[in-house]
Design a protein that fits this description.
Helix content is 44%, strand content 23%. By secondary structure, the chain is of the alpha/beta class. The chain folds into two domains: 5-115, Winged helix-like DNA-binding domain superfamily/Winged helix DNA-binding domain (Arc Repressor Mutant, subunit A, Orthogonal Bundle), CATH 1.10.10; 126-295, Vaccinia Virus protein VP39 (Rossmann fold, 3-Layer(aba) Sandwich), CATH 3.40.50.150. It has a seven-stranded mixed β-sheet with strand order 6-5-4-7-8-10-9, with helices on both faces. Strands 1-3-2 form a three-stranded antiparallel β-sheet. β4 (146-151), α8 and β5 form a beta-alpha-beta unit. The chain is elongated.
Length: 303
């Protein structure tokens, strides 16, 4: 990719310092806080913050806040991504400094799991996911699922399963604790192209028609407005895009007071999604429903 003269000068000026180049190498692999970066680099908070400000001002980093934490990352798409890739391609993969930084980063990511409260995180356990993984994968294209959104990503296990097939992979959850754990699992697995966002499923922070595939793991049974959530999912799906929905059979039956299969079919259709397949699945730990919906040409959210 060729850059304009001014863009090239700006990028080289911002990255042309050892610590800033190390930061770019780290932040292509994970979303990290200032404190975590200080620990990895062994530098003070003011110094690291100054380097991050320079890189962000040059457009080479994204910065976003989740409650008391501020995260940084290299954008996963666009010109900045390609610029950083070009800069880092000049470095040897086995460089001693970068290898040491990566080892420290792995330790920092692993430490998150010990600090994260998981009691309120509702998501597929690894054991349950292992039972249904072949069924979920069967519902999706073998080659690529395109741009993927995982709604209610929880601990990130479903995102971890599907991200290798995705050109872009995004997980969203309302819980900051869940997102910290998801980052641990997803980035710890080497899935560097995954993004984690805090957000509300009733008001997804993405333009209409952004994603080819959406997954949602047990978000509807306890939802106050399930039709609005499904309407938002239909909105961010491209025409012909696919939703793979996982629900707890008994929890949904208790919530709707009727047949959960018929209820899901009705909800999908009213949200602008054609239900192409729905079936119950017994796992070692749960009785689940897997439903597949395809976005119709026109999708309208129903409040």
């Amino acid at each position: 990719m060729a850059l304009s003269f001014l863009s090239a000068v700006s990028a080289l000026r911002a990255a042309g310092e050892p610590s800033r180049l190390r930061l770019l190498a780290l932040l292509t692999r994970a979303e990290l806080t200032v404190g975590e970066l200080c620990e990895i680099l062994g530098q003070s908070q003011p110094r690291v913050s100054r380097h991050l400000k320079i890189l962000a001002s040059a457009g080479l980093l994204d910065r976003f806040r989740e409650e008391q934490w501020v995260y940084y990352r290299v954008p996963t798409s666009g010109e900045a991504t390609k610029v950083v890739e070009q800069l880092l391609s000049l470095l040897a993969d086995d460089d001693e400094v970068l290898e040491r930084d990566r080892r420290r980063m792995d330790n920092v990511i692993a430490a998150r799991a010990l600090q994260t409260t998981t009691r309120s995180i509702e998501a597929l356990s690894p054991e349950c996911l292992a039972d249904i993984a072949p069924l979920v994968l069967r519902e999706l294209p073998q080659e690529s699922v395109g741009a993927l959104l995982d709604v209610g990503t929880g601990s990130g296990h479903l995102l971890e399963l599907l991200a290798p097939r995705a050109a872009r992979a995004v997980g969203i959850d309302i819980s900051t604790d869940a997102l910290r754990l998801a980052r641990t699992n997803v980035h710890g697995a080497g899935l560097h192209h995954c993004e984690l966002h805090k957000g509300d499923m009733y008001d997804l922070p993405f333009p209409t028609g952004t994603f080819d595939t959406v997954t949602a793991d047990r978000v509807l049974a306890n939802a106050q407005r399930p039709l609005l959530a499904l309407g938002e999912i239909a909105r961010v799906l491209r025409a012909g895009g696919r939703l793979v929905l996982i629900e707890d059979f008994d929890a949904l039956a208790d919530s709707v007071g009727g047949n959960p299969i018929n209820t899901l079919r009705d909800w999908l259709l009213r949200s602008g999604l054609e239900c192409t397949r729905i079936h119950p699945v017994d796992t070692r730990l749960a009785h689940l429903l897997i439903a597949v919906g395809q976005r119709l040409e026109r999708a309208t959210a129903v409040a």
